[in-house]
Amino acid sequence: MSSKSRARPIIGIPTQTLQSLGGVSAEIPPSWVMSQRYVVTLTEAGAIPWLVPLIDDETLRGIYDSLDGVFLPGGADIDPVSYGTAPHPLCDKTDRERDRVELALARWAMADGKPVLGVCRGMQLINLAAGGTLYQDIAEQLPGSIKHDYFPYGGSNLRRDYLAHDVDVAPDSRLAAVFGEGALQVNSMHHQGVRAVGGGLAVSAVAPDGLVEGLESANGAYVVGVQWHPEALTDSQEAARRLFEGFVAAAAAA
Fold this sequence. Notes:
Layout: E1 10-14, E2 16-17, E3 32-33, H1 36-44, E4 48-52, H2 57-65, E5 69-72, H3 96-112, E6 116-119, H4 121-129, E7 134-135, H5 138-141, E8 165-169, H6 174-179, E9 182-186, E10 193-194, E11 201-206, E12 212-217, E13 223-226, H7 238-253
Parallel strand pairs: 1-4, 1-5, 5-6, 6-13
Antiparallel strand pairs: 2-3, 7-10, 8-9, 8-11, 11-12, 12-13
């Protein structure tokens, strides 16, 4: 165990640019923000959360070196420029500086064997860091796709914990050890998704339409991504809590 290892490991949580969310007054200075739910969930799982600003690479590396693990949260669409693709008309608001920071953190952590957990956008980011690609809009680009965009806003009465559809969890996977193999009901708040799977990653869950809903490292390192939002399910689903606890335990042991 390294000298950094501790009972409560430090988990980095990248922020996003407030203005990328839209509807922000031009009078508000540029700001970095992140949902409190991620911070609270990781704290309850035993971590010391560290919000990471979208800072220059040298400073970012100094922050990274102090982390025991990296958590990649949900949020805005990933800019197609970040993975060398022309934007689709239905690609929504993006935050290229967040993309830069998260891709760097993910690549460093995956190379160094530091635990990484990503949810929704975070799983997509893990895939890009490993050289994969994305659907910029599932409904337009994946024939026969089911509805995945159960967003709890825009006049919708849905809650973030609404269980929208099943996923099929692969046997002998890290996800199966947490949730059990086979059918699992999940919430769903995305319109983008994994297209080509990145190198060194294994698919650990799929939706009924074949869309990738879970990824993990193929070499046994702790790299886990899920397309749903387990942080919104920890109040009602013990397995969702175990997912975060397992990640924090892996970071403590790294």
